[in-house]
Amino acid sequence: MTDRYAVIGNPIAQSKSPLIHGAFAKVTGQDIDYTKLLAPVGGFAATLDAFRAAGGRGMNVTAPFKLDAFAYATDLAPSAQMAGAVNALKFEGDKVHAQNFDGVGLVRDLVHNLACPIKGRRVLILGAGGATRGALLPLLAEHPAELVIVNRTVSKAQALAALAQQHQSGKVPVHAAAYADVAGVFDVVLNASSSSLTAELPPLPPSVFSPDCLAYDLTYGKGLTPFLKLAQQAGVTRLADGVGMLAEQAAEAFAWWRGVRPDTSGVIQQLTVPLV
Ligand code: ATR
């Protein structure tokens, strides 16, 4: 019997998940059906109850339901607990297992696809919202020399830095900074703020980029965002957006559901939007 999966959100028409998981099913020979599910705001639990009752096996969760999924889950993985949000669910009887694969997807893209090791390097991450929160532990697990969180609202960066220190017993120094106070140069600069969604430029001093730096925007499909343009103008040649992260977090979910990890290169190639 074909196993059913879906991505749930509102809106949902824009989602690439069915295309990605359809491609993964093809390359791995897995028999799955993966659809888009539009749930009314306030109707997350009822929509999930119906999907599970109809035999649904798992789900990806996108905006605005990542916190609803957190509340709905019976078993939260550490990744979901740390992120405070859920992007993948697996249904087993009465159990609703929950994960957040965004951070691990980001790190896999950096280290594996982009050949950009984190170990021993200085990493700067912009933003102190959900995207940064989800990325912290997977980044720290790679043992950077230092991780600096920069945010317009410094108190939010300080809170996340404290949370990160607490969870990794202080092995990697994690600091918070205001944009005007970021000191030194960084090997990896990650834009995890939502600035690219509104085509805004974070107030980042261009002096932060080291000559062989990787500038990475977690946003996908926006071309050369103001952040990437800033990096380019500062002389950075290694630029990337979040297409690989999108594919890798999906591959993590697929492997979790199906026990087989798909190759992501075809999907990344298909979804890549030129950085111009
Ligand atoms: P997400 O879940 O995508 O991380 P979020 O939790 O709403 O979204 O957080 C958005 C983050 O982007 C915040 O850190 C926000 O900074 P503030 O906390 O100071 O508001 C940051 N952000 C949004 N627009 C920005 C901009 N134009 N420049 C810099 N940071 C921006």
Structural summary, described in words:
By secondary structure, the chain is α/β, with parallel strands linked by helices. It folds into two domains: 3-99, Leucine Dehydrogenase, chain A, domain 1 (Rossmann fold), CATH 3.40.50.10860; 103-242, Rossmann fold, CATH 3.40.50. The chain is 37% helix and 22% strand. The chain has ten helices and twelve strands. The protein has a six-stranded mixed sheet with strand order 2-1-3-5-6-4, sandwiched between helices. Strand 8, helix 7 (154-167) and strand 9 (174-177) form a beta-alpha-beta unit. The longest helix has 16 residues, at 243-258. The chain starts with a strand and ends in a 5-residue tail after the last helix.
Write the SSE topology.
Blueprint: E1 3-9, H1 17-28, E2 32-38, H2 44-53, E3 58-61, H3 66-72, E4 75-76, H4 78-83, E5 88-92, E6 95-99, H5 102-113, E7 122-126, H6 130-140, E8 146-150, H7 154-167, E9 174-177, E10 186-191, E11 209-217, H8 226-233, E12 238-240, H9 243-258, H10 265-271
Parallel strand pairs: 1-2, 1-3, 4-6, 7-8, 7-10, 8-9, 10-11, 11-12
Antiparallel strand pairs: 3-5, 5-6
2'-monophosphoadenosine-5'-diphosphate binds at residues 127-131, 151-153, 156, 193-195, 200, 202.
Concise synopsis of the structure shown:
With 276 residues, this protein is α/β, with parallel strands linked by helices. It folds into 2 domains: 3-99, Leucine Dehydrogenase, chain A, domain 1 (Rossmann fold), CATH 3.40.50.10860; 103-242, 3-Layer(aba) Sandwich (Rossmann fold).
